[in-house]
Design goal:
The chain is an alpha/beta fold. The strands form three sheets. Strands 3-4-2-5-1-6-7-8-15 form a nine-stranded mixed beta sheet, sandwiched between helices. Strands 12-11-13-14 form a four-stranded parallel beta sheet.
Length: 369
């Protein structure tokens, strides 16, 4: 899906703005839903961003920037909007589906928010601060289904090479995020949308889009009632819900029904914390206090503000960091459901590419990382 050619220094993708607080993020989300005065005031800046995005894609298309393929089928799970869309639960669901098909699967990621910058394997017990909270969650969630290697690196092709060097029998690679990481060639792109779709349709910072939509992708998963306008790829509904239980740090499950009628202290450091709180309340839970923190917050200096005797409840992504200092916290997993036709489409693609790659694997690129 990308051109090849001489490899100059890598050009980073234009970064998305990161609100400094959950309240700022909530205000920004409201601005991004309408073409109001603030959005129009930011629109000239979005034109500059659009130009940079188009220029970078053109450089890859012309071969002035080089994209590489790791030599195994690559599935990229990503989005074109800023903020949470549920990519990581989808990655976990895909890994489990591929395992059920008998395919040896590996996961690669950038490892956003980690304190390290090297390429490394992610173990089920790896500290989230060193590998990123989402890769840590993936490694822990798939650990019970057999060996599923997870590697992180600033460049996904570097992570892919390291993973395949350590696990050469891998059949399929899944890239958690990276739809805009054009230096990694991919075979299948899955684009995920939350229920807000493309918002006002503007690019950052005037709207939520990281790149213009519509764009060519292979499959769209959408949490809203309908796919975003302009979608031409096969689109399937994505349903998100909380698991009926909370996890303790030792892995034991506590049914949510047992928590009803008790005051709870809910904390969330995700892109849309309000959604998590609303889902808890929809389960009949009583939230005496809620605390929204910036996405990927590290919890290193976080302290409870309320009575410590009130049970602490959080997202599973937050728990991989929170349990180190608050092992009594209860983590509620987010479950995703995709309609059977989605898996039919995925299996149809796998039936075409996976056997060929398994029978005669192409050699890995020897270009330097």
């Amino acid at each position: 899906m990308s051109a090849s050619g001489p490899q100059p220094p890598r050009a980073p993708a234009p970064p998305a703005p990161t609100p400094s607080s959950p309240k700022a993020e909530q205000r920004l989300q409201k601005i991004w839903q309408l073409r109001g005065p603030v959005a129009w005031a930011l629109w000239p800046a979005s034109l500059v961003y659009r130009t940079l995005v188009a220029l970078r894609r053109w450089l890859y298309h012309k071969g002035w920037l080089r994209a590489e393929h790791p030599g195994r089928p690559v599935i990229v799970v990503g989005n074109v909007i800023a903020g949470g869309a549920g990519k990581t639960p989808v990655v976990i669901a895909l890994v489990k589906h591929l395992q059920a098909r008998g395919l040896r699967t590996g996961v690669i990621s950038r490892g956003y928010g980690r304190s390290t910058q090297d390429c490394r394997a992610v173990r089920p017990d790896s500290p989230a601060s060193e590998v990123g909270d989402e890769p840590a969650l993936i490694a822990r969630s798939v650990a019970g289904g057999g060996t599923v290697p997870v590697f992180v690196a600033p460049r996904r092709i570097t992570a892919a090479r390291a993973l395949l060097a350590a696990h050469p029998d891998t059949d399929v690679l899944i890239c958690d995020d990276g739809l805009q990481h054009l230096s990694l060639q991919r075979d299948l792109e899955i684009c995920i949308f939350n229920d807000q779709g493309i918002g006002n349709g503007f690019l950052l910072p005037a709207g939520p889009l990281r790149e213009p939509w519509p764009r060519a992708v292979d499959i769209v998963l959408h949490a809203g009632s309908a796919p975003p306008r302009g979608t031409t790829a096969p689109a399937f509904a994505l349903q998100r819900s909380l698991a009926p239980y909370a996890l303790q740090s030792d892995g034991h499950q506590v049914p949510l029904a047992h928590l009803r009628g008790h005051p709870l202290y809910a904390v969330a450091a995700v892109a849309r914390p309000g959604d998590f709180f609303a889902m808890l309340r929809a389960q009949g839970l009583t939230l005496e206090r809620t605390e929204a923190l910036p996405d990927h917050y590290d919890f290193d200096s976080w302290q409870r503000i309320s009575n410590k005797h009130i049970p602490l409840i959080c997202t599973e992504k937050d728990a991989v960091k929170l349990w180190a200092r608050h092992p009594d916290a209860l983590a509620v997993p987010l479950a995703v459901q995709m309609a059977p036709p989605f898996f039919d489409a995925l299996d149809g693609w796998l039936n075409q590419v996976a056997p060929g790659y398994g029978a005669a694997r192409p050699p890995l690129s020897s270009a330097p990382a």
